[in-house]
Amino acid sequence: MKLKAILCAGILLFAVLICGCTTTPQESNALPETPDLIGNWTGTIIAYEDGEGYTTFDGALVTISVTEQQDRIFSGEFFYTDRNGNAIWETAAFAGAIRRDNRTLTMVEEGGGRSFGSLIAPDEMELIYMYGGEPFCVSIDSLKRS
Q: Of 11, 78, 103, 119, which is most buried by a Cβ count within 10 Å?
């Protein structure tokens, strides 16, 4: 009788293990909601510019004003100011796209610059800007929505 109980318990345990080990978790096809980027995003610039070297552009600030968004496509303008709010470079129009992960950003700027980046939080992003003209440069922009 004892052997029969052990055998039944062993078969039951085996059945439970097989059932638990052979099922696959269901994957969700649902994507997270597309983030709303409308608004002003302001932050600092750290860069390398050919002929100038590494720079913070004397504490310059960049503001990205996202004025339009339709699904994952958005557009607006870049503004660059000194610490006192005075414009230091021309305003540049841009357009961008949010990748399917709803986190990764790709942007193209009027005049040929390109930015790649990501949303770190709903109101925080980091962009890597690249320009291949004269002088070539690359920068890291850390921005928060204001």
A: 78
Q: How far apart are CA 101 and CA 108, in angstroms?
A: 19
Give residue 77's identity as a one-letter amino acid code: E
Closest C-alpha to 43, from 103, 123, 113: 123
pTM of the predicted protein model: 0.75
Of 62, 46, 59, 60, nearest in space to 143 by CA: 62
Task: Give the three-class secondary structure for 31.
Answer: coil
Question: In this structure, what DSSP letter does residue 57 have?
Answer: G
Two tokens, residue 51: 């002929």
Backbone φ and ψ of 91, nearest 5°: -70, 140
Confidence class of residue 5 from pLDDT cuts 50, 70 and 90? low
Backbone angles phi, psi at 21, to 5 degrees: -90, -15
CATH code at 39-145: 2.40.128.120
Percentages helix, strand, coil for the chain (3-state, rounded to 5) are 15, 50, 35
